[in-house]
Amino acid sequence: MLFSQRALSMIPDNSELIKSETRYRQLFENMTQAFALHEMVYDEQGHPADYRFLEVNPCFERLTGIPAAAVLGRTVREVLPDTESYWIETFGRVAQSGVPASYRNYSQESDSYYDTWAFSPAPGLCAVLFTDVTESKRAVDDLHQEIEERKRAEKDLVEHQQKIQTMAFDLSLAEERERGRIAAELHDQVGQRLILCKMKLNALASQSGSAHLDCEVDEIEKLVDQSLQDIRSLTFQLRPPILATAGLEAAIKWLGEELMNDHGLGVYVVDDQRPKPLAFEIRSVIFQAVRELLLNVSKHACIKSARVSLSEEGGVMSICVSDDGIGFDVSLEKSRKAKAGGFGLFSVQQRIEHLGGQVFIDSTPGRGTRATISVPLLQREQARDLS
Question: Quick one: pLDDT band at residue 340, thresholds 50, 70, 90?
């Protein structure tokens, strides 16, 4: 509690006390927390009934808007009639027990929040420190609200991405089914009609007796044979029957033989011989991806050999297509394809990702290329249902 100048003057050899009092007053008046000191007021029966304001600092006046003259010497009931019961109970509990207490209070009148700390410096006294934390509390509330909104946005984004992935997966499977339909029509309709044309040409040639006509028939028959061969090759490329009957590994080995015959590319295939159950449509997508990767080797790697390895680990199948060719800068190729809207190597990446898999492409100019496809395999129950 501050001393008056008159009281200080009455104390002999008071220089140190004056210095201490001056330091205390400077601290008191420059505090960034509001301060109020109360003393207990007793009723006629000697029971604690109220608390009287003994001292308030300038920060108290600024925060509350109440001048010191309006509170000093007055009781809590007189100054704070709307909340007097709460504060009298609080001050009484602290003053009588001597145990400090902290609170966060809200003032409806000023729409402000205060952090309050009450303690008892001496029996019958209660000192209160409080700070306006309205801005910090609202900033924290705004931050929490922003975090919640961001969480909702992230959840919505994940759900949207899952929907897109599901749609992309369905589109990929639909594309593979369409490949199968086209391959079947080429084989069953166009191929059969060309065979029928060949039979009719043979019948016509046997009836003609004209050497010139026979020569023309032979030329047409060669064209029909070539068309049949092209259709057969195209049908196998779209959806090789061996993919359904013997599996992905056998289909890739057959693909290697075809690429050797058509492009002179030697393909060395290594399989770890572990089971790799996949739905047929997914097998077809992977087959087309491997075909695209090997065609890239044939067209761009400037080398006549490539390796394909198939392995299974932890329910995931990995297929690695690698070569020792000229390689390329992956980042530049991605940028170029994005600008050109091209297909090929990175369209493979998109199609595999649509199936829930991943494609890692590692290439360095002059050091070859390594593309690894990873896709989750069917669970045992799914594989049993598939079979």
Answer: very low
CB neighbour class for 371 (10 Å; exposed up to 12, middle 13-18, buried from 19): buried
Whether 66 has a pLDDT exceeding 90, the answer reads no
Q: Is the pTM of this model over 0.90?
A: no
Residue 204's pLDDT is what? 74
The 10s digit of each residue's pLDDT in 1-55 is 444 444 445 555 556 655 666 676 777 788 888 899 989 888 888 788 899 999 9
b/e burial code for range 313-341 (CB count within 10 A of at least 16 → b): eeeebbbbbbbebbbbeeeebeeebeeee
CA separation (Å) from 150 to 138, 153, 351, 376?
18, 5, 30, 31
- C-alpha distances (whole Å) from 263 to each of 252, 257, 298, 299 are 15, 10, 7, 9
Average pLDDT, the chain: 80
